[in-house]
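Why should sequence recovery work at all? Because a backbone constrains its sequence more than one might expect. Tight turns favour small or flexible residues, buried strands favour hydrophobic ones, and helices have their own preferences. The token representation captures these environments compactly. In the example below, the structure is given first.
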């Protein structure tokens, strides 16, 4: 980055919102897991969509690479810079508009966290449809950029299904406003969908119109145990089609064991595999849940939470698994999307692969089993073991008809494996779109495409 670029950015946003402090940059150049790091030359924090757009133009004209950062919760090193980049943070874009209760929508800045948007929706007796463990730090701009899913995907879908409109600062410094007051607008190209899941390679999302949902009057939660993963997956296949399903979360007892040891959070059911089930609707769901549980091949008496306190205790079991992933150092993460019939064969093959490559590693599998969207985390895996294991695991995912990415994106960590899920023609078409919008390739250059 040249002195001129730094001076222009400082004049644009103010000295308080530009930093070249090495300690600040080092802290911003490491990924959420602590496993991958890069290098940056400056951090700029614009305060408006216009400032984002002008900052992009300054960097493009000055020949500086830009890496976009929101809450920095990427699990595929999607916010780790590689080219002495300017880090452009959306963290100051935190305005939340008035909730439209009639049309059930709200406009919010890209830097708004999932938790803050949930709170705004809740105050209007509505629900924001995406929830995830990193809700306190994950920003909705980043969630749109990766098309995040999360804990409520089985009911509400991924982030893209919550988006009614976007504001995007394009690589040339112009601002695209794609909004409509009507629910159905089939006018021209669906540019909103183009930017959702693009991982910041085509532009910077600065604002979003978000669809909200009616808040269910009643919830009931349970944790059920199964002797085999196939039995649990079969239960998930049955439950995901229930009209009032709200969550279906696979919980690995290996993660539960670590959570019990490290956090004192014990599972209420002893079983080989656990499934958190939640129903939500306008009427009491307790009897419906009881009827469903009667139909499942459970290995033990399930734990059921009817009141809010009991439900929170059951959810604590699921979320504690996220909290212990760093118990033995930075975990190695795989975002696994599999056909349901392949879940148990993959789990067994993955355990065998780990035993061969990294004896003593602890595999922890959890996630959104209704969609076959699971997260395999490898604990006690040293960086020296990662390279050979990562490639072998990606090959294993492909062999079980899985996808390179489900809800976390490709980032820089999976870019070498993009051809596992996309043909050469498909990749060439995506590169054509990238070149059309960002011909110099300066924006999020480390993400999605291999050099």
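From this structural description, the recovered sequence reads:
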């Amino acid at each position: 980055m040249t002195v001129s670029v730094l001076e222009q950015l400082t004049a644009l946003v103010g000295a308080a919102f530009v930093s070249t402090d090495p300690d600040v940059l080092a802290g911003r150049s490491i990924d959420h897991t602590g496993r991958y790091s890069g290098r940056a030359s400056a951090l700029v924090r614009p305060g408006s969509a216009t400032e984002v757009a002008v900052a992009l133009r300054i960097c493009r004209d000055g020949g500086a690479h830009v890496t976009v950062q929101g809450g920095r919760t990427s699990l595929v090193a999607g916010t780790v810079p590689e080219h002495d980049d300017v880090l452009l943070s959306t963290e100051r874009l935190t305005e939340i508009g008035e909730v439209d209760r009639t049309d059930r929508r709200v406009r919010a800045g890209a830097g708004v966290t999932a938790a803050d948007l949930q709170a705004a929706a809740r105050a209007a007796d509505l629900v924001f449809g995406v929830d995830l463990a990193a809700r306190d730090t994950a920003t909705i701009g980043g969630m749109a950029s990766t098309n995040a899913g999360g804990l409520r995907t089985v009911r509400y879908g991924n982030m893209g299904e919550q988006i009614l409109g976007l504001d995007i600062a394009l690589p040339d410094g112009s601002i695209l406003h794609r909004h409509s007051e009507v629910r159905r607008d089939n006018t021209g190209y669906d540019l909103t969908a183009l930017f959702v899941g693009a991982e910041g390679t085509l532009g910077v999302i600065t604002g979003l119109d978000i669809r909200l949902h009616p808040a269910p009057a009643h919830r009931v939660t349970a944790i059920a145990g199964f002797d085999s993963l196939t039995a649990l997956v079969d239960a998930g296949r049955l439950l995901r089609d229930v009209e009032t399903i709200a969550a279906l979360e696979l919980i690995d007892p290996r993660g539960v064991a670590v959570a019990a040891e490290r956090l004192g959070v014990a599972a209420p059911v002893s079983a080989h595999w656990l499934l958190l089930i939640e129903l939500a609707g306008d009427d009491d769901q307790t009897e419906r849940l009881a009827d469903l549980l009667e139909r499942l091949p459970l290995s033990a008496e399930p734990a059921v939470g009817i009141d809010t306190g009991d439900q929170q205790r059951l959810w604590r079991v699921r979320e504690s698994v996220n909290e212990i992933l760093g118990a033995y150092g930075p975990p190695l993460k795989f975002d696994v999307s599999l056909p349901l019939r392949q879940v148990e064969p993959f789990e067994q093959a993955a355990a065998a692969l780990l035993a061969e490559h990294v004896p003593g590693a602890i595999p922890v599998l959890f996630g959104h089993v209704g969609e076959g969207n699971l997260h395999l985390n490898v604990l006690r895996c040293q960086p020296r073991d990662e390279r050979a294991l990562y490639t072998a695991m990606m090959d294993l995912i492909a062999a079980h008809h899985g996808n390179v990415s489900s809800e976390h994106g490709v980032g820089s960590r999976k870019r070498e494996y993009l051809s596992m899920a996309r043909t050469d023609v498909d990749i060439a078409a995506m590169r054509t779109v990238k070149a059309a919008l960002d011909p110099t390739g300066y924006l999020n250059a480390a993400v999605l495409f291999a050099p």
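A few observations help interpret the result. The mean pLDDT is 93.
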